Amino acid sequence: MTLYGYARVSTEEQSLQRQLDALQSRGVDQQNIYPEKASGTSERRPVLDYLLTELLNAGDTPDLHRFSDPRVPGHRAHGGCGGRRR
Fold first, then answer.
1. What is the pLDDT of residues 23-72, one digit of tens each?
2. Whole-prediction pTM value?
3. Which long-range contacts (CB under 8 A, 24 or more apart) does 73-80 make?
4. Regarding the domain with residue range 3-64, which homologous superfamily does it belong to in the CATH classification?
5. Which residues are identified as catalytic?
6. Interatomic CA distance for residues 39 and 2, integer angstroms
């Protein structure tokens, strides 16, 4: 079982660092964190799509820091989705 992390910001001016730090503090290896810069209103998120459709295997856990997306079971507007298994 592998723990993967996903972090997203909407603009180039925003920093991912707080999300990256939070994911690492919850045990996600840096090499397994997938950051993305994409608008919150955009449905196109290629990094997230890759993580959910190509990378995760049965038993893996995605940890999605401060995330809300109806494509992800158990999505929430605040807090991670750690513990949701594919």
1. 999 999 999 999 999 887 777 889 989 998 999 888 888 887 655 555 55
2. 0.71
3. 80/22, 80/23, 80/26
4. Resolvase, N-terminal catalytic domain (3.40.50.1390)
5. 10
6. 28
